[in-house]
Amino acid sequence: MERLFDGHENGLWAAWELGDPNRRSAARRSMMQIAEELRQPAQRWSSVSSEAVLALAEGRFAAAGGLIEQAASVGERARSSPGAGGRAGRRAVWSTRRMNA
């Protein structure tokens, strides 16, 4: 399931670069669904932080602020979760620091 999540995450950013909002939305929905099924902090963080980036890009600043806070909270759990690996934790810390700078 983690690889399936990663595939949808890659699809989200590919759709972003191609300017395809329909594919981007489909990939985002799939990421969110898989993250809920997995119940793993790393995938939950990636899903929420991706939503925060999209909210910022779309000018939904109030929503982005709440999502950034949520991503930081989930990212802390991902960082300290055994099996989550260091990558998710480092990405969470880097991303929230950058967004809050």
Describe this structure in words.
With 101 residues, the protein is an all-alpha fold. The protein has one domain. Helix content is 87%, strand content 0%. The protein is built from five helices and no strands. Helix 1 runs antiparallel to helix 2 and helix 3 packs parallel to helix 5. The termini are far apart. The mean pLDDT is 84.
List the helices and strands and how they pair.
Elements: H1 2-18, H2 21-38, H3 41-57, H4 61-80, H5 85-100
Total count of strands: 0
**Mean pLDDT score:** 84
The radius of gyration over CA amounts to 13 Å
Q: Quick one: overall form?
A: flat
- Binned, the helix content reads over 70%
Q: What percentage of amino acids are in beta strands?
A: under 5%
Q: Strand count, sense and closure of the main sheet?
A: none
- How does the helix and strand content classify structurally? mainly alpha
Write down the domain tally.
1
Distance between the termini: 34 Å
> Are there runs of 5+ residues with pLDDT below 50, and where?
none
Number of helices: 5
Secondary-structure element sequence?
A: HHHHH
What attributes characterize this protein structure?
87% helix; flat; 5 helices; single chain; mainly alpha; 101 residues
Concise overview:
The protein is mostly helical and 101 residues long. The protein is built from five helices and no strands.
